[in-house]
Write the C-alpha cells for this entry.
Amino acid sequence: MAELTGIGVSTGLAGGPLLRIAAVPALPEPAPVADTAAEVERAFAALAEVVADLGRRADRTKDATVAEVLRAEAMMADDPMLREAVQEGIEAGTDAVHAIDAAFATHRAAFEAAGGYLAERVADLDDLRDRAVAVCLGRPMPGVPQPGHPYVLAARDLAPADTADLDPEQVVGLITADGGPTSHTAILARALGLPAVVSCKGVLDIEDGTLVTLDGSTGRVESGVSAEDVAAVTAKAAEVKAAVENSSGPGRTSDGHAVALLANVGSGKDAAKATEAEGVGLFRTELLFLDRTREPGLDEQVTAYREVFTAMAGRRVVIRTLDAGADKPLPFLHQDGEPNPALGVRGLRIARQRPEVLTTQLAAIAQAAMQADADVWVMAPMVSTVAEAAEFAALVHDAGLPKAGVMIEVPAAALRAERLLGVVDFLSIGTNDLSQYTFAADRQVGTLAELLDPWQPALLQLIAACGAAGKKTGKSVGICGEAASDPALAPVLAGLGISSLSMSARALPAVRAALAAHTLAECQRLAAAVLDADDPAQARKLVS
Amino acid sequence: MPTRTVTVGSASGLHARPAALFVQAAAAVAPVKVTIQVGEKRAVPANSMLSVLSLGAKKGTEVVLAAEGDGADEALDSLADLLARDLDAEEPANG
C-alpha cells in the first residue's frame, strides 16, 4: 500500500479501481505485413470494437440525444467504404494501424473541404481514428473510460470536453496530477458532488485497475488497498451521504449558533433552484452584461434583478455590482489591454472612469427591490480602502437601498475590516480572489495550486481578522468564495466568527450537516488550532 | 438501371439524424446495392455514412438514387419516400 497526498477540493470519501484518461497513442514506425488476411482481420476487429463500445455507451445513457449522437458516431466507424479503404491499404503493403490512419485521413480531408457542419464533425472523425488506432495497438481507448462499473478516474487534468463523457453512475471519485482548488476539475467535481483530489503528484504512476481510496477533504489517496478497504470506505461514504440527506432547516451548530447558509446565483433560474438556501449570498450580475456592445438599459436590468428578488421573496439577497475588468472584459466598457489585468481597473474601480454604469445599476436594483419582497443587500467588488467603501455606501443609500457592504478580496481590506465596518453594514469575503492577492498567485496558473488552498493559515488569519471585526461591531461577515462550500472547513469558519456561508446550492446540504455535528465551542477550538497550524496539510489533519 | 430523383426534405439536410436514418434504411435493403448522387459528383454507396455525409446535401438539394437487381424498385421507392420527408420534424423512434 502506498500513500499519496494532493489537495482535497471536493469533500467525501470514495474507493474503487483506478482508471485513467488514456492519451492518444503515437503512431509506431510502419511495420512490414507478413500475413495480409490476418492484418485485415486485425484492423476490422479494431473498428468493430470501436463500434461496439459506442453502442454500449449509447445503451447505457439515459439521455436520448446523447444516445443518438453516439449511434451516429458508431455508424461512421462502421462504414463499409472505410473498411474497403483499410483493406486496400493493407493489400498494398501498409500495416493495420497506418491503413486505419490513412483511411480516416481521406474522409477527414473530404469533411474539411466541405466546410460548415462537416468541418465541425472533423473532431468526431479524429476521435474515432484515435480509438481505432489505440485498440489496434492493444492500448486503452483515449478519453474518459466507460467500463460499465464504478471506478476512480485519474487524469493529468480534466478538459471541459471530457466532462460530457463523465458518467456519475460510473465515476465515484476524481484524482488529477495537476490543477488547483479553482481548476475546472475542482468546480466540476463540486457541481457533481464527486469526491476529488487535485495536484496529486504520482497518481499517473499508479497502474490502471489498482484499488485506491481517496478523501476529498484531506487530499489523501491510498493505492494498492484491499477490496475490503474499498468496501469500508464506500459504506462510510453512504453513511455520510445519508446524514447529509437527512439534514434540513437553517444552518446552525449542534448547540443552535446560527450560520446562515446562502446560495451563489447568476440568474433567476439559479435562484429558483436554490430552494434549500436561506437566501442568496452572492448574486453575480455579470451575466446580463456579457457579450454586450452597449450597456443593458435600466428596464432590462430591473427585470433581471426582480426575477431573483421574486424567487427569494422573504429571504436575503446580497447582490454584487458589476465585477468586470481587463481579465473579464465587457465590450461596452472599451477597456484597453492592461499589462496586469488582475491588478488593473476592475470591480468598483471601473466606477472611477464610468460612474454612470454604477449609478444606473444601483437605480435598477432599487426599483427591482421595490417591486419584490426580498431583503436586498448591495455590495461592491474589489474594494481596498475605507474611502472607497464610504463612497460606495453613500451611493447605495442615496439610491434608497438600506444595506451596503463590500467584498473582502484584497489583503488591504481584510487588515482594515473593523474600520470598513465603521462605514458599511456588512462584509463578504471572496476567498478565491483573497487567496490570489494574498499569495501573489494567479488563479489561472495550475502549478501554483497549493498556494491557493483555502486551508492556508495566512488566508485563514485574514478571515479571522474579519470575523473578529464582525463580532466586535455586531455586523454580518460572510464568505462567498469556494472555501464556503468545503464541509470540513465550515466549522472552522463558524469558529472564526463568520456569520454566513454562500455556495453553489448543491454544496449546501453537506455544509449544513458538518455544522450540525459541532458545538460552537468545538468550532472555536478547531479555529484556534487551525490558525496555529504550520501548513494546509497540518490544518486539515487537526480537523479530521 | 432504375433511378429516382428526390428533393431532400429534412430541415437540417442530409446530416446528423436524417443521414443516420437514411444510411440505416439503405443498409437494410441489402443485398440490393443503392447509390446516391448529387449533381455531377461521383455516385456513392448509400450505406456509407461517411460518403453520404460528404455529399453535403441540404434541404432542397436534388439527389439521384440508383439501384439494380431484384427488389431495386421497391428499395428505391422506400428510400426516396424517406428522403423526401422532413425527418427532423419526426419523433425519435426510441423516444
User: Anything to note?
Assistant: The two ends of chain B are 38 Å apart (CA to CA).
